Structures
1.
Amino acid sequence: MAEPKQNPLMEKIVSLCKRRGFVFQSSEIYGGINGFWDYGPLGAELKRNVKELWWNTMTRSRDDVAGLEATIIMAPEIWKASGHVATFSDPMIDCKTCKGRFRADQISEIPCPQKPSKCVGECHGEKTEARAFNLMFQTYVGPVQDDSAIAYLRPETAQAIFAQFKNVLETSRQKVPFGIAQVGKAFRNEVTPRNFTFRSREFEQMELEFFIKPDEVIEAIYGTVAVRTPNSQLLSPQPNWGWQAWHHYWVEERVRFYEGIGLSRETLGFHHQTPAELAHYARACTDILFKFPFSKKDADGNVTGDELEGIAARSDFDLSQHQRFSGKPMGVFDEELRAAWAKLPKEKQDDLWKRYYDHRKNYLTKSAKPDETPEQISLQATEDANGLAKGQYIPHVIEPSAGVDRLILALIANAYSEVTKTDDKGKSETTVVMKFHPRVAPIKVGVFPLLKNKPELVAKAQAVYELLRPHLKAVYDDGGSIGKRYARQDEAGTPFCVTIDFDTLGEKPELLDTVTIRHRDDGKQERLNISELLDFLLSKIRG
RNA sequence: GCGGGCGUAGUUCAAUGGUAGAACGGCAGUCUUCCAAACUGCACACGAGGGUUCGAUUCCCUUCGCCCGCUCCA
């Protein structure tokens, strides 16, 4: 009666997550709630490690990124400016006959999929009533639940960064180019949560908005914009980088991050969005994919993977939107630009002015509110271009936006491996080893006495455990046999296990105060002095 | 949201219109001088609600959840 195994590996991973305490279904005792997942003891450690590594990599180890922690509920105008209210609230009609779903305002234009000679509104399929599809979670601020109190749980963390751009700029002593990073929860009322935690309704994002000068500004100051050549590595940022170089740089930075936590390039995939896929304001978007067990094959039979992170070049769209909707200036003043502009030959000034004008006019036209006339738009674009000559511009942005939960799932899938051992009697047994990179492993070290019923061993093992635990996540285990404890830690993905034996106590005097340290992935042991233990572990975990 | 499949200990699986079993795992203990040893004991399940029935985990309905396909994917 068992259901057919559609994806045995994925099912084993889900089962392990429950069994060992990586991931539980939310509200499980009440039957669960679709699209929501909890992290158990091991998952919580794993997730914390990943977020901390991202934060350290993206902010603390860089001079040019500042952090932010904004609220989940913000002024609803934010989501009007970002476009989320408009794009999320189209009334939709389902056809029960052909299973199609159509925008209610387009049923008299779209041809029926089954009878293309007729439009959806005319065909005989049985239709549902028009229903509003808003993928943002709604709530009310304050006790009165009327329309004026409607607010939304943020569908992405990014907008808070744009909304607080000027405050961060003024308080962080940063200047463009610089970034603002944030880690936090976001909520989307997904139509179909799928693939375990991959698409959840409540999830966590790690987002960087990296603000850069428009190419026209780079050109005004440095004469030319540095162009990416096939061989250029673009490893360290240069003042004359334009958006392409920065975009390429951040893709590489992010790939290096994934490699640094154990996801090799072979496990990753890339998708460069085509012009048709790109939002109208975006210039490029590169998705970094991971080849999940549930990832599908493309037309050529290759697994490309599913999205972990998108690195988008979003032009100056976001800050421009918030400038228009809030009425507050979102531009920056650049002394260098003003000084450089004055020294430019007239033709160059005119050329840059025209290009900036065209860009602004294009944006303003596409984002125009219904009551804005072409004349007003031209006037605003002229004003914007004139600002350039005075050293003013709206920064462009490169947005590396990663999903924490997707990354956790990728790390779990990547770590999962099975080892089959056959004993002397020919009995074989398969065990699971979670090969997490030591940097992300939920537990860094297990400490065991070789035998439980020898008080000297137990006391010494507990002393070693107390020595390590202030510095890293350690566990003490004296249950069962030593082999069982190793196996337990293998399933948790603990990279190192330390065992206190009789030599530690001085049975061989030359080995007094040494312990065995056992490596998860090959089972090999080495002997270390207790005094060297902490440094050894820290070097493996931080190195 | 539509269609299909499926819900039994923590996990993997049995059985049954008449009070649910196993293995592994967990906990406690004995033992054990390095890779899930052995032994003893303990705890733990029919997703929820309603209906049919003398009696439902089993049959029916609803609901919730999981998987697959469609749809959606800012």
2.
Amino acid sequence: MQVYSTLHRQLVPLVPAQPGEIGMYVCGATVQSEPHIGHGRYAVAFDLIRRYLVWRGNRVTYVRNITDIDDKIIVAAAEAGEKVDERAQRMESVFAKTYESLSVLPPDIEPKATEHIPQMLTLIERLIERGLAYPAPNGDVYFAVRTFEMYGRLSRQRPDELMAGARIEVTEAKNDPLDFALWKAAKPSEPSWDSPWGPGRPGWHIECSAMAAHYLGADFAIHGGGNDLVFPHHENEIAQSEGASGETFSRYWLHNGMVNLGGEKMAKSTGKLVGLSAAIAEYGGATLRLFYLRAHYRSPLEYSKELIEAAAASVDRIRRFALRAPRPEGVEPDQAIVDHFIVAMDNDFATPEALALIFDGMTEVNRELDNGESADSKIAAIHQLLDVLGIRPDTITGDVSQVRNLVDELGLAQGPLEDMMEALLEDRTMARVERDFARSDMIRDRLAESGIVVEDTADGTRWFWR
RNA sequence: GGCGACGUGGCCGAGUGGUUAGGCGCGGGUCUGCAAAACCCGUCACUCCGGUUCAAUUCCGGACGUCGCCUCCA
């Protein structure tokens, strides 16, 4: 299996320290405000990687953190008149809901920064002992970038050239403008924790170093996150972790590409964003998930109505397939299809190619079914691969209230959705037999309005939620 | 200015030194009360300029362009 590692800048074989034992740390969200489409991408990308690695027989420990204390949260909470921890918890639950809608599995461990302050303090003390960090007179503690020779290895930045860029925060407390905060002295009314350097809160980067080491040790396989985190966040993590332990910190660095809107990165700071919850409400989580998977995880991904609707059309195609060709019991999946999938996915998780072969397989199955042949092993393979990709066409549902209204109007019996649909479709079939097409079309149209597609096929009438 | 990624048909998006990606859309057909679906056929591209080669979209060099990072960021 080959992965593209930002550290190596090329495809490299994925070889964990212990064969089949993969520790995976992914930088999760800062729960400052509602997630946008971009947040869904990182979540789906690494969920996919995790699922695939597990499916291939690895024991994966997936850690995805929550940053629940930082400047942005403090500011956002103040603006909203909320307590910092309350806001963080509220946003955390919004994120959790969207993850669930996107079929993103919960990580094995989801550590929060505020619950690992002791680990961070220990790490900072060690860095000071080793001469890589220093407390400043104002109560801050800084990492001394120039003392860490390898600084810039991940992002290919040289400290002198960073200086030339000059957009670096200059603080009098720092010995060098490149130094970054490990610990920030608390201002009045800010949340704070006791430390050897006085009350304060952690700098952003230290939490990931501390929590990754705590749960995965130093030499774990994969560290992931958005490619906007390469510098400075991941660069600083390496400096802190390797500076403290003297060991390599994470073997491979995987970074997902950004979601663009109108050709530019989606970001809160520029106001160029679409809310994730709103998009899920409009199109459904499965469509969003497929939207992400249509592009390779490292490529930029443009968000637009046209592209999301193309994804929705593909979800419909998958859904129809699942209805026509349900998962057969006790059938061995077609090995050729599975092998092809593995070749694609072993190549840095090439989901566009994987999707292409699944669509190919669906076309073959449909053809064979049209010809009255059995296609069970191919069907089994396709269902299995959809599972690995986390695409679950059977879990989509909609609002039943309009169906109830229609049932009432037609004088049919209320009941579970399945029963009501059966009654409605029977009514419609009768109307068609009597050539009362006004009535049959009305039923179909009304169901369409409530999000249910009704189609008459050679095998009979089928329906599904869109 | 520094670092990095990338430029494929109407759109999205793989891939390859000479032979079909796939999806969406579009045109035609089979089927059908209609619609939709499904299937079949068609829609054959690779930013530009040099170079290597019998042969380049695919390798090398250059130009142009796009995007990201260098500041909080998935």
